[in-house]
Amino acid sequence: LELELELRGAIDGNQFELHYQPKLDLNTGRVSGVEALLRWRRPGFGLVYPAEFVPVMEDTGMITSLSGWVIEEACRQGRAWLDTGLDFGRVAVNLSPSEIRRGGVVERLADILLRTGLPPQYLEIEITEGGLMESGMGAEQFLQQLHQLGVFLTIDDFGTGYSSLAYLKRFPVQQLKIDRSFVQDLPSNDNDSQLVSTMISMA
After folding, report:
1. Phi, psi (deg, nearest 5) at residue 152
2. What's the pLDDT score for residue 122?
3. Which of 100-109, 158-167, 171-180, 189-198 is the least confident region?
4. Which end of the chain is more exposed for a tag (fewer CB within 10 A), N or C?
């Protein structure tokens, strides 16, 4: 309850911030994109990671307003980088399953892109495999609408969401982001090596 009360004032109090983690192309060593990582600078505690507060925000419905802030802030930063001539690739943001269930995501994204002036091809939307499967039969239509908007689509935590391969065949996604549980023991774990190689071949 104490955490919930503090979080309700955190957005208005400008206590959230985004850190940008670079993605590297291992063939060239160049930055191919950045991922926006959310942090809460909680008074008296310092930086708090999402795992500690996002579940509370999802349970209380606060996640929608926070997600809107994250996407808009990332798009504003992307536009600022473009204006300085910086080639950053794409800026990636996560979309929570609860926001997908609420609806209206495509319209909100289109509005943010218009207001910030960021061309849609510079925005990457990451959706967890599990969150996508929760959408059921509406997942394909939802992804088609995002694809038509012009943003780059990534399935996050791939390999953990028990997805149907028939779904994946039809989804208009450009990237699969393999879950870290398969990657963290590479290259010493032979089983993980075989699984990851298969995932890459399938992608």
Report:
1. -85, 135
2. 97
3. 158-167
4. N
Please tell me the distance from the alpha carbon of residue 153 to that of residue 164, in angstroms, as a whole number. Answer: 18
Token pair 């925005």 is found at 123
Which residue type does 12 have? Answer: D
**Rounded to 5 degrees, what are φ and ψ at 68?**
-60, -40
Any idea which of 25-29, 30-34, 56-60 has the lowest mean pLDDT? 56-60
Pick the closest to residue 192 from 203, 201, 180, 202 (CA basis). Answer: 180
Give the residue-averaged pLDDT of 10-14: 86
Q: Is the dihedral of CA 108, 113, 119, 124 positive or negative?
A: negative
In the prediction, which pLDDT does 141 show? 87
Residue with token string 């109090």:
13
Question: How many Å is the maximal CA-CA distance in the chain?
Answer: 49
The pTM (predicted TM-score) of the whole model is 0.90
- Contacts of 172-178 with C-beta under 8 Å, sequence gap 24+, read 172/143, 172/144, 172/147, 173/143, 175/124, 175/203, 176/203, 177/126
Q: What is the CA radius of gyration of the chain?
A: 18
**Across 99-121, average pLDDT:** 92
The amino acid occupying position 32 is S
pLDDT for res 157: 87
Q: The tokens of 2 are what?
A: 């104490």
Helices (H), the chain: 2-10, 50-60, 63-83, 97-102, 105-116, 129-134, 138-149, 165-170, 180-183, 190-202
DSSP helix/strand/coil, 28: coil
